[in-house]
Amino acid sequence: MNPGTAPTPVPTAAERKAALVLRLQQQRESWRQRRDAPDEEAQADGADTFPRSRVFRFLMANPALAAAAVGLVVAAGPARLVRWGSWLLPLLMRR
Protein backbone atom coordinates (compact mmCIF):
# COMPACT_ATOMS: atom_id res chain seq x y z
CA MET A 1 0.00 0.00 0.00
CA ASN A 2 1.35 3.41 -0.97
CA PRO A 3 1.59 6.00 1.79
CA GLY A 4 -0.89 8.80 1.39
CA THR A 5 -3.42 6.81 -0.65
CA ALA A 6 -6.70 5.61 0.69
CA PRO A 7 -7.28 1.87 0.71
CA THR A 8 -9.72 0.62 -1.88
CA PRO A 9 -13.05 -0.31 -0.34
CA VAL A 10 -13.92 -3.99 -0.29
CA PRO A 11 -17.35 -4.63 -1.82
CA THR A 12 -19.92 -6.20 0.42
CA ALA A 13 -21.45 -9.58 -0.31
CA ALA A 14 -24.65 -7.92 -1.53
CA GLU A 15 -22.68 -5.69 -3.94
CA ARG A 16 -20.72 -8.67 -5.28
CA LYS A 17 -23.96 -10.62 -5.75
CA ALA A 18 -25.62 -7.69 -7.54
CA ALA A 19 -22.61 -7.32 -9.86
CA LEU A 20 -22.66 -11.05 -10.59
CA VAL A 21 -26.39 -11.05 -11.34
CA LEU A 22 -25.91 -8.06 -13.66
CA ARG A 23 -23.05 -9.80 -15.52
CA LEU A 24 -25.13 -12.97 -15.89
CA GLN A 25 -28.08 -11.02 -17.27
CA GLN A 26 -25.85 -9.23 -19.78
CA GLN A 27 -24.25 -12.50 -20.86
CA ARG A 28 -27.64 -14.19 -21.29
CA GLU A 29 -28.90 -11.27 -23.33
CA SER A 30 -25.87 -11.36 -25.62
CA TRP A 31 -26.37 -15.13 -26.08
CA ARG A 32 -30.03 -14.58 -26.95
CA GLN A 33 -29.12 -11.92 -29.49
CA ARG A 34 -26.55 -14.21 -31.12
CA ARG A 35 -28.97 -17.14 -31.13
CA ASP A 36 -31.85 -15.12 -32.55
CA ALA A 37 -29.76 -13.23 -35.11
CA PRO A 38 -30.22 -14.52 -38.64
CA ASP A 39 -27.29 -16.54 -39.89
CA GLU A 40 -26.27 -14.54 -42.96
CA GLU A 41 -24.07 -17.27 -44.40
CA ALA A 42 -26.82 -19.88 -44.10
CA GLN A 43 -29.31 -17.54 -45.73
CA ALA A 44 -26.91 -16.71 -48.55
CA ASP A 45 -26.19 -20.38 -49.23
CA GLY A 46 -29.74 -21.54 -48.80
CA ALA A 47 -30.93 -24.41 -46.66
CA ASP A 48 -30.59 -26.93 -49.48
CA THR A 49 -26.78 -26.86 -49.81
CA PHE A 50 -24.98 -30.17 -49.80
CA PRO A 51 -23.38 -31.17 -46.49
CA ARG A 52 -20.11 -31.76 -48.35
CA SER A 53 -20.09 -28.11 -49.46
CA ARG A 54 -20.58 -26.94 -45.90
CA VAL A 55 -17.77 -29.20 -44.67
CA PHE A 56 -15.34 -27.94 -47.32
CA ARG A 57 -16.30 -24.33 -46.62
CA PHE A 58 -15.71 -24.91 -42.90
CA LEU A 59 -12.34 -26.55 -43.51
CA MET A 60 -11.24 -23.74 -45.84
CA ALA A 61 -12.14 -21.22 -43.14
CA ASN A 62 -10.24 -23.23 -40.48
CA PRO A 63 -6.99 -24.54 -41.99
CA ALA A 64 -5.53 -25.53 -38.61
CA LEU A 65 -8.49 -27.80 -38.00
CA ALA A 66 -8.08 -29.29 -41.47
CA ALA A 67 -4.41 -29.99 -40.76
CA ALA A 68 -5.33 -31.62 -37.45
CA ALA A 69 -7.90 -33.82 -39.23
CA VAL A 70 -5.33 -34.91 -41.81
CA GLY A 71 -2.87 -35.67 -39.01
CA LEU A 72 -5.47 -37.76 -37.22
CA VAL A 73 -6.19 -39.71 -40.40
CA VAL A 74 -2.49 -40.37 -40.96
CA ALA A 75 -1.95 -41.37 -37.33
CA ALA A 76 -4.98 -43.68 -37.32
CA GLY A 77 -3.72 -45.86 -40.15
CA PRO A 78 -5.59 -47.65 -42.91
CA ALA A 79 -6.94 -50.61 -40.92
CA ARG A 80 -8.52 -48.40 -38.28
CA LEU A 81 -9.96 -46.08 -40.95
CA VAL A 82 -11.63 -49.04 -42.69
CA ARG A 83 -13.05 -50.18 -39.35
CA TRP A 84 -14.38 -46.69 -38.56
CA GLY A 85 -15.72 -46.29 -42.10
CA SER A 86 -17.60 -49.59 -41.95
CA TRP A 87 -19.34 -48.30 -38.84
CA LEU A 88 -19.83 -44.67 -39.89
CA LEU A 89 -20.80 -45.05 -43.56
CA PRO A 90 -24.15 -46.80 -42.91
CA LEU A 91 -25.06 -44.04 -40.46
CA LEU A 92 -24.31 -41.36 -43.05
CA MET A 93 -26.11 -43.19 -45.87
CA ARG A 94 -29.40 -43.32 -43.89
CA ARG A 95 -29.68 -39.56 -44.00
Radius of gyration: 25 Å
Secondary-structure-based class equals mainly alpha
Report how far apart the termini are. Answer: 66 Å
Please count the beta strands (DSSP E, at least 2 residues each).
0
Strand content: under 5%
Low-confidence stretches: none
Order of helices and strands: HHHHH
Q: Count of helical segments?
A: 5
Q: What's the helical proportion of residues?
A: over 70%
Q: Calculate the mean pLDDT score and round it.
A: 83
Major beta sheet, specifics?
Answer: none
Global geometry: elongated
| Assembly state | single chain
Total domain count:
1
Structural account:
The chain is mainly α and 95 residues long. The protein has one domain. The chain is 76% helix and 0% strand.
Structure in a nutshell:
With 95 residues, the chain is an all-alpha fold. 76% of the residues lie in helices and 0% in strands. It starts with 12 loop residues before the first helix and ends with a helix.
